[in-house]
Structure to design on (326 residues):
């Protein structure tokens, strides 16, 4: 068992993958660290703003189809079998 | 041509339907064109802008000679030319928390043709509260997204995208992208009105023209969502 991460739009371009199976992480922060370790600078650039290293506001994360808890945010715990979707919502019309 | 679940009854349902198209730009142009052509009897189009030259690459209801005109005026002219049997109400106004209720109450569907999240969130909330289907769409570059929001314990736009993505001063859109998403919004509205098929509820469709694929993201309702769980209590 592991956590399944699904990439959409720009994140798919950055990773070259539709999805990845990740083991040994227990919350969103450690998952993102592991993803950057695995997929490198191209993904890091999409996730974090280059000077502050804060997660970009263009990144939307759903866990099992649910938005992150407002209080826990990136400390939201993950467990085996969880499905995490990462996508950049677009705004234009 | 025969479409299962459509037929004469479906056509009659469309004829007595009232759809609001909020924003008559890149998404609203194709969406309203196909709704008019399908015979949706009553369209209300809302927009507070005038046609600019830079709009013409994607806002296909507005043409070169329309630059400087009100978008709602230019669009009304084209939509009634597409189908003279329908009624088009043009509202030259900005959607605000004051007027959003009155603009959306009692209609059969609201199509999201906006270019910003604050107004989308206003429409999302008003539609959930007034129990009106809201068909969300958004685009940038060659990427588009689509989700249908139905009242009654189903996930809303805030469940899928809780925080407004940062405003970009300028983003470019390949005109065909809102063409794709706007047509799909019209299709969702037509399906809801006629009762055909399965609406895009509880899932967001992501279109990526760069790789040319469509994907679905599962979306579940956040039980603590301030918009859709309040309505459900
Ligand atoms: Zn909600």
């Amino acid at each position: 068992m592991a956590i399944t991460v699904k990439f959409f739009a720009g994140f798919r371009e950055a990773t070259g993958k539709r999805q990845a199976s990740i083991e040994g992480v227990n919350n969103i922060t450690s998952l993102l660290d592991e993803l950057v370790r695995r997929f490198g600078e191209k993904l890091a650039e999409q996730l974090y703003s280059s000077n502050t290293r804060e997660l970009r506001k263009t990144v939307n994360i759903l866990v099992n189809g649910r938005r992150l808890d407002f209080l826990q945010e990136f400390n939201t715990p993950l467990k085996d079998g969880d499905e995490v979707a990462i996508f950049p919502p677009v705004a234009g019309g | 041509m025969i479409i299962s679940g459509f037929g004469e009854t479906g056509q009659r349902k469309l004829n007595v339907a009232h759809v609001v198209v909020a924003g008559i730009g890149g998404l609203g142009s194709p969406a309203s064109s196909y709704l008019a052509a399908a015979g949706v009897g009553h369209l209300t189009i809302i927009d507070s802008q005038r046609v600019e030259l830079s709009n013409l690459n994607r806002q296909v209801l507005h043409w070169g000679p329309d630059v400087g005109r009100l978008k709602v005026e230019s669009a009304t002219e084209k939509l009634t030319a597409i189908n003279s049997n329908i009624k088009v109400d043009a509202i030259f106004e900005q959607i605000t928390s004051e007027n959003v209720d009155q603009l959306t109450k009692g209609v059969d569907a609201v199509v999201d043709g906006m270019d910003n999240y604050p107004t989308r969130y206003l429409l999302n909330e008003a539609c959930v509260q007034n129990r009106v289907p809201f068909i969300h769409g958004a685009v940038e570059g060659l990427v588009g997204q689509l989700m249908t929001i139905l009242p009654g314990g189903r996930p809303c736009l805030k469940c899928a995208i809780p925080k407004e993505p940062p405003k970009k001063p300028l983003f470019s859109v390949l005109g065909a992208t809102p063409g794709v998403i706007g047509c799909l919004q019209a299709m969702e509205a037509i399906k809801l009105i006629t009762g055909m098929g399965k609406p895009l509820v509880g899932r967001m469709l992501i279109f990526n023209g760069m790789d040319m694929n469509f994907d679905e993201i599962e979306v579940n309702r956040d039980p603590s969502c301030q918009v859709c769980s309040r309505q459900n209590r």
Q: What stands out?
A: Chain A has one domain: 2-87. Residues 11 and 87 of chain A are 7 Å apart (CA to CA).
